[in-house]
Amino acid sequence: MPRPASDKRARLTAAAIDLTRTGGFDAATIARIADAAQVPSGSVYYYFKTKDDVAAAVATGIGHRLAESRADLPGDAREALTGFLRSYLTEIEATVTDGTLLATASAVGSGDAHRAALAWLQERFEDLGFTAAAARARALHLLAGVEGGAALARALGEAEPLEREVAHLERWVANAGT
Question: Tens digits of per-residue pLDDT, 97-110?
Answer without folding.
Answer: 988 888 888 888 87
